[in-house]
Design brief:
membrane, 273 residues, transport, transmembrane helix, mainly alpha
Length: 273
């Protein structure tokens, strides 16, 4: 028994080492950006000659970067609102037992997650050019809604898989209409799934660059597009500072999503008990 225990312990340690090494290999290029954002010199070099907050100060004081940040926040917020509403309604419709062609509709709704982004960007460009939505924040919001809504559909559909439809029948028997039953019975129970989908939609919009390159003008530059332009035109450590802020921002969002998913699983377990 002692030999078997030692062997299992060695295997467990080996798995931890392999897993940790793999994780380090994947995140090392990302973590390497953070120290460079504090470089005192305007070069991407190691070892760094000194530390400075110069590039963060330049980001927060530059009108160009502030405009890009403002555009990214505006577009992401409105795209998230639209994606959450449309995606939640679509998921509720797909969860109904009498929904016709459910598989086909689901495939269509989540296709923006499967189709390469550049292909979707070309299609959006030609469609929006025909109706005059290019070079506008409205067009960018609608385009990011198309990209973000599938994430809401997927997460809300997963949340609805554990929802007891008998609760809706009970609400109807007590005099609640369909809308009232959804708002007062269904939504509170699937709220973690809706919130997770909304966060995914927000991150998708905030980090998106390909569609922005196709349909946004110079006044509608988002933060990722401004970073792209900076890499091509003037390779400044300010880009590293922005990247470091985005890494922290994305990590916080990921932790929030994990917390919401854990809360949803806990609620599902309690309902089953």
């Amino acid at each position: 028994m002692s030999a078997a225990f030692s062997f299992n312990r060695i295997v467990a340690i080996g798995l931890w080492v392999v897993g940790g090494g793999t994780a380090l290999f994947l995140i090392a290029p990302i973590l390497a950006i953070i120290p460079l954002s504090f470089n005192a010199e305007p070069f991407f070099t190691y070892p760094m000659p000194g530390l400075s907050l110069r590039w963060y100060n330049e980001f927060f004081s530059s009108e160009v970067w502030k405009l890009a940040l403002r555009n990214s926040i505006i577009v992401a917020v409105f795209a998230t609102l639209l994606s959450t509403v449309l995606g939640t309604l679509a998921a509720i419709g797909l969860s109904q037992s009498d929904c016709p062609a459910r598989a086909t509709l689901t495939a269509i709704l989540i296709s923006p997650m499967i189709v390469p982004v550049v292909v979707a960007a070309v299609g959006i460009y030609y469609a929006f050019a025909a109706v005059g939505l290019l070079n506008s924040l409205t067009g960018l919001v609608l385009a990011h809604t198309v990209l973000g809504a599938p994430f809401v559909v997927v997460t809300v559909t997963a949340a609805l898989s554990g929802f007891d439809q008998n609760l809706m029948r009970a609400a109807a028997s007590l005099g609640a209409g369909p809308v009232e039953a959804v708002l007062r019975v269904m939504l509170p129970l699937i709220a973690p799934g809706v919130a997770s989908g909304a966060l995914f939609a927000f991150v998708t919009s905030f980090d998106e660059v390909v569609v922005a390159l196709f349909i946004a003008g110079s006044e509608e530059r988002t933060l990722p597009r401004q970073m792209w332009s900076g890499v091509r035109e003037t390779l400044s450590p300010t880009i590293a500072a922005v990247a470091a802020l985005l890494i922290v921002f994305s990590t916080l969002f990921l932790a929030t999503i994990q917390w919401l998913q854990g809360r949803a699983e806990l609620q599902k377990t309690h309902r089953e008990e």
